[in-house]
Every structure is written in structure tokens, then in C-alpha cells.
Amino acid sequence: AAISVSQASCKNLCHRHQLFIDFRDLGWHKWIIAPKGFMANYCHGDCPSSLTMYLNSSNYAFLQTLMHTVDPAVPQAVCVPTKLSPISMLYQDNNDNIILRHYEDMIVDECGCG
Amino acid sequence: SHFQEHGFLQFLGLEKVPSPDRFLPVPRILRTIFQDREAAAAGGIPQDLCYVKELRVRGNLLRLLPDQGFFLNSQKSSQDDSCLQKFLYFNLSDIKVKEQLTMAQLGLELGPSSYYNLGPELIVTLSVVEPGGWEGSDPKPGRMLALHSVPWPQGALHFNLQDVGKDWNSSRPKNLGFYLEILAKDDSRYSGVKFQLEDACARLRHSLRASLLVVTLNPEQCHPSRRRR
User: Fold this and answer.
1) How many other C-beta atoms can be found within 10 angstroms of the C-beta atom of residue A101?
2) Which residues of chain B does A90 touch, with a Cβ-Cβ cutoff of 8 Å?
3) Chain B within 8 Å of A39 (Cβ-Cβ)?
4) Is ipTM strictly over 0.90?
5) B77-96: per-residue pLDDT in tens?
């Protein structure tokens, strides 16, 4: 069934936004050799009760939303990452060791209500 | 903000923010692995983060440790054919107890390859120095690990130290020491031109760089590989 939501409110719904993390902004360029930065992204937006089941939500989020309608003291589901991926980092430590390491959960690939 | 940064760095496995004086050159193998993984991630290709396919070993952390050793017998007699003797020392204290060493490879950079630098053939001998065998006295060579005959100049030499890896996993020493000796093989082409040999050895002493590449695996982050049926 079609969902009647205006274009304006669609923009406010939970979805992924671009966020480039530049290591220079954090001062980390002094020890990270590569990469210089990466597209980490972030999740932001509303998770209205009426649309929870359409916004890549977990079963738990759906139930939490139902509970919120029954008892407003239960918080509404929020927009969170639902799929993350790793990056590799090449850096130099204080002992002049050069280290190549993977770091899990550094890039937001997908968002949903949870 | 500083408190949060500290917490995040601990999550990354770092005690504090590194502040190296200068960046050291990154060896090609590490750059290649990094670039391959970056390309795979960009292409959405699934990766096994606990296997280093370029080195064909399991592991999720690669470290290149610089040599912190020193040259030996700098006042040696000019009669022998010994080009140089060096004690190679690597500090392994940053490797956490949880980590299992899956590969150790010693790299020796003998200097740039050049037609004009052609010189005598070299005999490179690498021996173990037992832990503690360098405290208070000059390190002495122990069990020989490798003996290589190499034409001059050779660029980089690599020694796979599988036994060292096995020993390390059982005894967990905080450091490793090796005795490196390079001999210039006597060659009739160089008879009477001893000064050229000495020049070649002096150049080698200047250009020699040693490093230890270690790959470790943290079992908490990597599940055992599936056994083949």
C-alpha cells in the first residue's frame, strides 16, 4: 500500500548522511600514514511510529514503537547504523613501529530505526 | 573531547596518541596490502580480515619493527674478509599477550641496486643471539638461522623465521636478538684492489637497514579457520 507522506517530511526520515572524516581535523595526520581520511557517514532522521516498519527497522524497534504508542514513557525508536564496514589503517607508533591494522565498524553503510 | 579521544584510542588498541618525530618509509609489501584492502572495500568485495593473502598467513595485525641494534667490531683487522658484523635487536613488547605470532620475516635492505656499484659477492650469515646474551658483553652468535650467498648489490633480502615464531608463542620473550655477519667473498677480480672492497663495505654499513615484519592473530577477533572436509 502507498504511504501518504509529504516530500518535506520524507527528508527528515531516518537515513544515511555523508560525513567525511579528515584525520587532519583531529590532529591524527601526525601518526596515521594512510588513509588521509575516509567517508564514515552517519545516521540521522525521524523514526515515526507509523513508518517504523518501513525504515529498515529491527523487530525490536517495531515492538518498542508499539510499546511507545501504549506507554509514552517508553522511548521511541531512534535512527541508528544497521550495517557497518571496516577500514584499514597504516600508522606509526611512538616506538617507530609501522602498523597495518583493520578496524571494524568504522563506516556506516546503512541506517535504520532501532 | 580529550577524554573521549583517549577512550577511542584505547578501543583502537593504543595506549596514547602516537607522536612520531618523522614518518619512516613504508615497505612496498605493507603498501600493497593496504591498497588491495582499500580497493576491495571500495568495490564492496567481501574480505577475510583474519587472513593476509599476500603473505599466505592467518593474522589480523601487521607490524614492521625497526632494528634497534648496533654494529660490532668496528676496529676489526683489515686482514680478514669480514665486511660487517651487526647485532640486530627488535623490541616485541608492544605485542599483546592475547596475540599469536603467525609470521616473522626479517628484511635486510642492502642498498640501491646500481650497475656502477657492482662489487664482490657477499656471504650473509644470520644467527640467533639467546635472550640476555647481549647484556654486559658483546653479543655472540648462537644457532645459525640462515646462510646466503648473494651477488652485490642485491637490494632487499628476506629471511622467514618460522622457528622464531614457534619459540615466541611458547616463551613470549620481550625482545629478539640476531647476529648478522656479512663477508665479502674473496675474488681474483678484486685482488690488489682491497681499497675498493673497503669502500664497498663502508657503503654497505651506511646503507644497511634491517626490519622485522611480524604478523599476529588475536583469537578474540578471529575465529579459527574452518577445517577442510
Assistant:
1) 17
2) 26, 30-31, 34
3) no
4) no
5) 445 678 899 999 999 988 98
